[in-house]
Amino acid sequence: xxxxETGGPAFPLVCxxxxxxxxxxxxxxxxxxxxxxLYQSHYxxxxxxxPREPEFIAQMDELAVDAYGIADSMLKARxx
Length: 80
Known about the structure:
Blueprint: H1 3-6, E1 13-15, E2 19-21, H2 26-42, H3 54-78
Antiparallel strand pairs: 1-2
Helix pairs in contact: 2-3
């Protein structure tokens, strides 16, 4: 993906000894924020330490797709 598609690095770090570390992209950062808000508003999470049912995993997969959709919309809105 290009910088236009990802928004570029979210928290670039330049260090004389190690060069440049780009870390996560702005798209990843936006998606993480969106995912947290979506999850909090729709799910009650309880850590059980047990494997999850396939239905729960499928819901989380859909949540991740939705979060990146929101991130893409946020990046598009920045261009206007």
